[in-house]
Fold this protein.
Amino acid sequence: MRLPQILHSLHKRLQKMFEKRTEGGESATPSIQDIAGRLAEEQQRLRQLEATTAPKERTLLVLGSKCVGKTTAINKFFDREEHATRPTLALEYSFGRRTGSGKSPQVMNVWELGSLDNAEQLLEVPMRTHGLQQLAVIIMLDLSQPQRFWMDLECAYKGLRGTAQQMMEKVAPELREILEQRTMERVGQRNKEVEKLDPLPFPVVIVGGKYDVFSGFDPAVRKHTCRCLRSMAHLIGGALLFYSQKMPKLAKVLRDTISHMGFGSPAHPFRSHVVDFNEPLCIWFGADSWSKIGDTGAQSMERIGATFGVEIPQLQLEKQKLQETLDPSKDPGFKESLIDEMRSQKNEELAGLMRDVLLRGKFESVQT
């Protein structure tokens, strides 16, 4: 449900409240104080309902471009040191637990999607398993390849939006109301542009990875790339952050952001607001606007992509080239001695069978 529909729904509920009061003989025209009181009561009811139904754990879904550093960022957050990071082939799960003083343990489920190719069913796993109420998403894009990342961003957003829409149609009205209220709070309830946005019902942070490489690009490329990402983040009601594991300051901001989305602390991981394309962008939820981004006005995803494609032509590579991956059986990171020995034995048996078939074929040809 888009935000204009949310506002319309809230308006209709308030209108019904005042119609009932009118039938009871009271004034038909509510005062500003009456409206403010009713809104406060409505918000208080939602907060109480949310408190009674709040989940005891949170879920973080990380997806995006290949080889951009998703696994490394997760491992660094959990203080895991790996000499050779293995490529994520499908969907991997991990979790973290934090115990505060006098508080019950907090649990964060972390799902990492390895590839966006044909990933619709995999996307549904964390979203349907844990639900939308406690879900947060990080979309990591490779800034070192601005001529390729739009396809990843578009694919990630369409997959998330499609699954979210299907789930929102089936959730209870009370939960839908909570999710819609949270969405409005993220984008800013006083934001005059809410009707021009198409936000997702959960927080999304777009992370531009490999900023250390991107910072050396031509200023025009950086300007167009930043405008594209700002436009997309604003459209979906998300936040935007540039990141590089080689730059400790940026790595800490991402670490704090993961902690915020998974455990709720720190309360505000973005300690600065940066919109200059000459610097690493850092824009919190609801802190941007179409007028600040440029003079093009409100835009749709299709228009953002078309404009970016003109400014920075996107490489249309063959799908098989986009899916270039090493054979996991030959990857040293996936070595298993017992399995490798059995596979070698089966390969030898298969080779022997093939030789027998060839010899039998030659013998039969000679006899005829």
